[in-house]
Structures are given as structure tokens and as C-alpha cells.
Amino acid sequence: MTAAGASTPPRWRRWARATGQLVALLVFYLGLRAVTQRGVARGAAPALAGHDLAGHAVSLADLRGKPVVVHFWATWCPVCMAESSTVDALAHDHDVVTVATSSGAAAQIQASMRGHGLSFPVVVDEDGDLARAWGVRAFPTSFFLDADQRIRFAETGFTTSPGFRARLWLAAR
Description:
Blueprint: H1 11-36, E1 43-44, E2 49-51, E3 57-59, E4 68-73, H2 78-93, E5 96-101, H3 106-116, E6 122-125, H4 129-133, E7 141-145, E8 150-156, H5 161-171
Parallel strand pairs: 4-5, 5-6
Antiparallel strand pairs: 1-8, 2-3, 4-7, 7-8
């Protein structure tokens, strides 16, 4: 008996309650994922061409023949900034094209990256045109492309380093 005089619920009831809570959390997660990924590009990757922070032309077509991560993010997005060091580390070992959407001009993005110690390649998408073409409605959103530039995986929200690397490895198969 507890201090209040009530008995502790049987073990099966505690397990049932915990299982119910876990199922509710899973349903919430899957629903949120469905909403944030609705309309996201699938199949052949849309064209991606723009200019990096130094003003050089960048084209996804130049990376054909190898797996690529296309990562949409924004400087004003706290989740994007929380995973930015993971994206930075990944970009040192793999082909990664990031797209800074609705984050201002190149100078503003550069200042933000300097402040966070980041050096990954960035295409400036000041007006959000590239994000719209890829169906991105939530940030961050990452696409994992195979060597033929077909989208194998699309992930919205925070992704861990093992998650990035596993999806990129699978896209290479």
C-alpha cells in the first residue's frame, strides 16, 4: 500500500499504460512526419542550381555518378542550427549540398556560419524558390540521392550523425 492507502496497480496495468503511451507517441510522430513531408519531392531529384556564398555557380548535375545529400535549412531555425555541426562533419567526408532558404543574402548567411564555426557548402535560396521546387515546407529537410540522382530518402526534422551516414550508405547501394 502507498502512503495514501491506495494499492499499487498490478504490473500488467502499468505495462498496458506504458504501451498505450508509447503507441500514442508513435501515432503523433507518424502524423507529424506525414504532415511535414506532404508534397516533398520523390523519384528523380528536381534540378538544383544556384550560387554559393562566394558567388560561384553550383549545380547538382555536376555531382551525378555519386550519392549526394541535399540539405535544406535556415539560419533562423533552431533545429537546423542544432544539427549543423553534424552536417558540417558529413560534408568533410561526402558530397553535401546545403540550401539556406529564406535566410537573407550571402553576407548574412556567412556571418551566421562564422558565428557557429561552420564551413559546409551553401547555395543561397533567398526567396525560397529552390525549397518550393523540392516541396520543402519544414526545416530542416534532407534528401539522400543515389548515383543516378534519384531520391532514396527524405527526412524532415533533426537527424543524428548515424542517421545521416546510414541513409547515405544505403543510397549508395
